[in-house]
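Progress report, Aim 2. The chain analyzed during this reporting quarter is listed below.
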Amino acid sequence: MPVRRTHRIAALGLSASLLLAGCGGSDEEAVIEDAAADVDEQLNESAEESSEDVEPEAEAASDDMEDGAQTEEADEIQQLPSGAASKLGSVPDVPWTEIEASPETVVEAPGVRLRVTQTAQVDELSAEIAAEVAMAYGQRPARPADGETFLIATLTIEDAGWAHAEAESEGEFRVAGNPVPNTVLRGGSGERQQTTYVVSVPEGASPEDAVAELVTDDVVQQISLIDGTRVNSDVEHIYQAGTEVTVDGEGYSQVFDSWASGTHEINGQVTGAVISPYVEGWARPGQVFLGVDIDARDDTGVDDDITTIQLELADGSTLTPENDFSSLINRFDETAWFQVPADSEQITLHLNPMGKAGTKEIDFESPIEVTLTIEGGPTDGADSGDQVTATEGPDATDETTATQEPGSTD
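Predicted structure tokens for the chain:
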């Protein structure tokens, strides 16, 4: 029984006994008043003792309730704001969907071959991943904003391997057409890189609604973060073009009388050819650059090798080089560049050996035909198999790899 209740019962008993014993005299009234005073004093002391006993217990109970509320809050799944996004420091263990490499699942630009290699959609982020996405929220599991889901995608960037191509590209993610912060893309170092991102996207988003966008000299290209397909490209035709050129044909060698005395010789051989969508700028719509390298030797001294070259396309039309490839010393000092249809498969190169002795031009009337066969595709030669383990650091930046200087395309 509580102390206060015990004292109250004792005091009430004492008071009742005195009242029953009283006979109304003044002395007896004084005794009753003294007894009543004793009762009040005992009640006050009882109240104080009871307060001292109860308060620690109440405080302990209150502390337990607060601790329980804090524990419940710590275990509660937080909700991240709409559009949350971040680069991750490692590849998380989630149910991935692998994206097979194909011409439809790649975006290329000078120095960059961009692919989405795997994707996943989850309704909750682990505490570790959530802490990377929104550090200010603490290390707690997270769910997306209402009407959204978390999209996780791994991207690889490597060198596209285009000949004579050098340009700056800028990239970022876009969701529903809007840029996503913390998703800047950089490439062109020539080293294969892998980076994993998490982005909050609307539930039921289509492949076109969440993309990685690459911009090069105002040319826009986009690849889906949802299924890895290329969903937009201002230069779609380049993905029809082959990447390898084989050369089949003989060279030329001609001797002629010099304008001064004796005889002199000119000779040359096609040593290779390359395809590139970009040489000091993008090729015209529907076309790519075809570069031809000729190793020419000229021992004529003051006489000149003025051999001409011309391409014949499959439809019979002909093309001449777009740049000045010669020098005073070597007729084919630089790569000779043409623009050809992107879907070309076989082209004939005509060499017409000519010399010049003083002011006299000599046409040897012995043209040479060289067959150029174009094969391959955007993903040929790319290491698109096992995932690499290295990840791009949060602040990593890359510079486009410079290649051999091309000739003028004016």
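The first strand starts at residue 78 and ends at 79. The chain is about 20% helix and 35% strand. These observations will guide the mutagenesis work planned for the next reporting period.
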